[in-house]
């Protein structure tokens, strides 16, 4: 499969790529090479091969969610170094 300039420009826009017009021929060639490499995967016999969803055979050990009492508003502010009536006060980080 070869890529034309229109397709290249669409891909570049979607991928937020910027390149000069002089580099477009090189990009066309490189993208065509990538696609031809990926197309070779169609030649591989995958009959009976289960789809791979992860590179690890480990299983996540998840705990079940438990409803517990939430932290009271006043208790959360109790030990704050700086606070006002309802909020934590932190140093300004944006100008």
Characteristics:
95 residues, mainly alpha
Order of helices and strands: HHH
Give the CA-CA distance, first to last residue.
51 Å
Mean pLDDT: 88
What gyration radius follows from the Cα positions, in whole Å? 27 Å
Shape: flat
Helical/strand content category: mainly alpha
The percent range for strand residues is under 5%
Report the major sheet.
none
How many helices does DSSP assign? 3
- The helix content is 25-40%
Q: Uncertain spans, ≥5 residues at pLDDT below 50?
A: none
Report the strand count.
0
Could you describe the 3D structure shown?
It is built from 3 helices and no strands. By secondary structure, it is mainly alpha-helical.
Concise summary:
The chain has helices at 5-14, 24-39, 73-78. The protein is mainly alpha-helical.
Task: Record the SSE blueprint.
Layout: H1 5-14, H2 24-39, H3 73-78
